[in-house]
Amino acid sequence: MKRKISIIGSTGSIGRQALEVLEKLQDKFEIISLAGGSNVELLMEQAEKFKPKYVCIGKPKEDEIETSEASSYKGFKLLYGAQGLDEICSNKENDIILVAVSGKIGLRPTLKAIDNGIDIALANKETLVMAGDIVMKKAKENGVKIIPVDSEHCAIHQCIKDINQVDKLIITASGGPFLHKSIDDMKNATVEQTLKHPRWNMGRKITVDSATLMNKGLEVIEAHHLFGFDYENIDVVVHPQSIVHSAVEYKDGSVIAQLGLPSMHIPIQYAISYPERFEGIKTKSFSFAEIAHLDFEKPDYEKFPFVKLAYRAGKIGGTATACMNAANEEAVFAFLRGEIKLFNIYEITKQIFDEHKVIQNPTIDEIFEVDETTREKTRELIVNNIAIK
Ligand code: MN
Prior knowledge:
By secondary structure, the protein is α/β, with parallel strands linked by helices. The protein contains 17 helices and eleven strands.
């Protein structure tokens, strides 16, 4: 029997790569629904090719566009916006839903799917950074599996046989484009230099986060929720080649790591096919001899202060991580618009974070409210700073 899957965010970087994987696994999977954002043209191309039953456009219905002209294939039901995502994530026909959108938009569909007992392949780290306690608790109550797509967490998932025997999680970081550049180089970095990631091809927001190492900070929080480890037992190590995707250390000192070429196809395929493995999109065998050597080093926390801030936010808990995430995201957008410098992202996020009054054990609505007010405050701070300059 084919496994039934829906993709939330099919036109983004992870979504497109997921469809490349699924194209090779047509005898294993049936695509039930595709949901995209503003790139309606690509979404319609995908719909024609993969023939899902439901297609959701990332806009409310009032903005209805001429999709009838965009697609000659009419075999699907057209859905719109948040309501459409709700319908997709309530459809119990799905065996698994791949949540591949970036940002806070991933949280509600994930909760909806969990409510309906549908397993999740999770590529959206904000879901756990914003509301990890609520999401993991609900998943446990409903017997829902959350399989990580993020390459580091996918690696850890593969390395853990008996979680009670594991002492420590070791998350690797490529270090991004400024690893061996000076702090001054980093302070004057252009958007173009920042978006040139040496190892991974990803969306713009996550690529900026990789340059500041905020991405690693968010991944530490993600790991804490996914695997239930205290922050003291999660380490970060810089590994520029991105061959070791992460590792776990067992009680007896044994370390098990997962290795592979840096391609998101492998973790995406693992997450949707778990516990099975298929040849799928594999094009090349791994060669130790070709790689020759692997380097590891401690992160430079002076150059990459976000890692420490994320640990601090994680340990505080409650709405602290949602606040940090929202402030960072707004500052990243301002950087991408050319309004602030790369280093300002940290300064702004830190200031907003320090002013935040943390709510412990928040409800989902309180989390969304903190997210919203934090974004407003961050934008205000940015606008005022620009005015001063
Ligand atoms: Mn990652």
